[in-house]
């Protein structure tokens, strides 16, 4: 790999493409997986939850894969769910743990159902956001 310090300004795009940007195949596979998960969360998540009135109103994609800024040696996707049950921050804070547990259960089911090879990383925080 060429040292970035020796790359001329006109060669930056090529350097980025050759050494930093993941392949088009990887980006397409990741995009399909993220879209499948988003569709699953919007249409099937919380269907058989203890509180069946919970609905996913919107899913916002973030992280490098969600924003299209992924790199060869490290990419992630963050999905933010907006639910119909939260009317205030206090309410969200109180119910968050239960909701996250249910989402985790549903995502594990989604992974098996859709035959996806994805890694779900748990938050290191005791009361995740």
From TrEMBL:
UniProt domain Polymerase nucleotidyl transferase: residue ranges: 55-112
UniProt keyword Cytoplasm, yes or no: no
Annotated transmembrane regions: none
Database matches in InterPro entries: NT_2-5OAS_ClassI-CCAase, NT_sf, Polymerase_NTP_transf_dom
Keywords from the named record: RNA-binding
Keyword RNA-binding attached: yes
Entry's Gene Ontology BP terms: defense response to virus; negative regulation of viral genome replication
Example of a GO cellular component annotation carried by this entry: nucleoplasm
A Pfam family annotated for this UniProt entry: NTP_transf_2
Assigned protein family: Belongs to the 2-5A synthase family.
Protein name: Polymerase nucleotidyl transferase domain-containing protein
Natural source organism: Micrurus carvalhoi
Organismal lineage: Eukaryota, Metazoa, Chordata, Craniata, Vertebrata
């Amino acid at each position: 790999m060429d040292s970035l310090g020796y790359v001329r300004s006109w060669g930056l795009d090529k350097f980025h493409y050759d050494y930093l940007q993941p392949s088009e195949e990887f980006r397409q596979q990741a995009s399909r997986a993220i879209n499948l998960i988003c569709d699953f969360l919007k249409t099937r998540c919380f269907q058989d939850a203890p509180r069946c009135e919970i609905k996913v109103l919107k899913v916002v994609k973030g992280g490098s894969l969600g924003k299209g800024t992924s790199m060869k040696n490290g990419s992630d996707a963050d999905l933010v769910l907006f639910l119909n049950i939260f009317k205030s921050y206090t309410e969200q804070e109180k119910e968050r743990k239960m909701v996250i547990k249910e989402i985790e259960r549903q995502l594990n089911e989604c992974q098996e159902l859709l035959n996806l090879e994805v890694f779900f990383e748990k938050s290191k925080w005791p009361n995740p956001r």
